[in-house]
């Protein structure tokens, strides 16, 4: 799916077609050791050993897993790499300069395992020149601290690294985990982005501006415990000036939204007077363990496209009657209809 091999036809959903292909491969014994839930849905499985060995043979010059020592270099040749996963776990490890010479890379996973004394900085990360990697479609960044440190220095370092890694606007998938900075300043230009996952970015107080991304389909935000309010900045409206945006559709393609463990999130409200569409294609929404969230925005109560809404662990949310009367919901938890 990530490599665009499925050959979608018009009006086909990527996940549905991918599931059909998976089922066909499973029937042909490409996978083994299945784990299933109570409804017989497959939770996880393993690739058959023979298939795994054959796949490794086919991509032996394109897929690499890389670790770095304190010199940040490796003896291997990665010039033809298409998919690279690397881990920086030495306190003195610097960002590998080898990234500069990989021009056709399509997916990159970087995992930092460091503490306050680690040497990785913005200048080194900038040398990776991700903005020039026009084939890069999938980027995962993990900031994994040995300690729970969240000092000002850590915040500054993470912000410098993230700003310096500014990726190509062709990026389609971005996963960001453990970032300790306070803001995301470069996501708005990622106009080809289709999937965004942000997890455990504990210092961020505001969501990035995402409403004008024309192709974004899946958005997951989890564990952003400093977030207290979601407002106009999420849509991309500044200074309460909605008049210039009245003809826009915000989140025009978003169909899957997951918001979880936002412990201090209280308000979700847009200060707007114009009548325009927000998330008109949203079909699935999961809001979980947002224990201080008071209310859903009006566009949720007008979401004709919404097919599945899961809300749990939100004890102060007081809109159940409105949700019941306005949304096309066909199933509720046991006993809920008695309180509506």
From TrEMBL:
GO terms for biological process, alphabetical: defense response
Source species, please?
Acer negundo
Q: Does the keyword Transcription regulation apply?
A: no
* Disease resistance protein winged helix domain location: 1-55
Q: What single Pfam family name could you report for this chain, choosing any that match?
A: LRR_R13L1-DRL21
Keywords from the named record: Leucine-rich repeat, Plant defense, Repeat
**Record's superkingdom?**
Eukaryota
Q: Does the record's keyword annotation contain S-adenosyl-L-methionine?
A: no
Q: Which InterPro entries match?
A: LRR_dom_sf (IPR032675), LRR_R13L1-DRL21 (IPR056789), WHD_DRP (IPR058922)
Please give the name of this protein.
Uncharacterized protein
- Which positions fall inside the R13L1/DRL21-like LRR repeat region domain? 120-224
């Amino acid at each position: 799916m990530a490599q665009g091999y499925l050959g979608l036809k018009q009006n086909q959903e990527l996940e549905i077609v991918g599931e059909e292909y998976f089922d066909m491969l499973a029937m042909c014994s490409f996978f083994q050791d299945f784990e299933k839930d109570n409804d017989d849905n497959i939770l996880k499985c393993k690739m058959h050993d023979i298939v795994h060995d054959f796949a490794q043979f086919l991509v032996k010059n394109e897929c690499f897993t890389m670790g770095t020592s304190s010199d940040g270099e490796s003896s291997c040749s990665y010039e033809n790499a298409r998919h690279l996963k690397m881990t920086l776990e030495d306190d003195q490890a610097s960002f590998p300069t080898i990234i500069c010479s990989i021009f056709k890379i399509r997916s990159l996973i970087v995992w930092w395992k460091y503490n306050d004394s680690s040497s990785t900085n913005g200048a080194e990360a900038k040398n990776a020149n991700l903005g020039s990697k026009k084939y890069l479609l999938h980027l995962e960044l993990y900031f994994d601290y040995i300690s729970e440190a969240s000092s000002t220095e850590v915040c500054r370092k993470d912000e410098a690294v993230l700003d310096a890694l500014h990726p190509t606007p062709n990026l389609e998938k971005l996963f960001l985990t453990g970032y300790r900075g306070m803001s995301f300043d470069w996501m708005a230009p990622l106009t080809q982005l289709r999937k965004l996952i942000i997890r455990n970015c504990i210092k961020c107080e505001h969501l990035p501006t995402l409403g004008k991304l024309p192709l974004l389909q899946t958005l997951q935000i989890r564990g952003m415990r400093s977030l207290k309010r979601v407002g106009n900045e999420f849509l991309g409206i500044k200074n309460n000036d909605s008049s210039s945006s009245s003809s826009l559709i915000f989140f025009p393609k978003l169909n899957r939204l997951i918001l979880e463990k936002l412990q201090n999130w209280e308000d979700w409200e847009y200060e707007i007077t114009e009548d325009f569409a927000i998330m008109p294609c949203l079909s699935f929404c999961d809001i979980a363990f947002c224990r201080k969230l008071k209310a859903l925005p009006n566009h949720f109560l007008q979401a004709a496209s919404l097919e599945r809404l899961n809300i749990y662990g939100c004890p102060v949310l007081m809109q159940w009657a409105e949700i019941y009367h306005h949304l096309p919901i066909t199933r509720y938890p046991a006993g809920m209809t008695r309180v509506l």
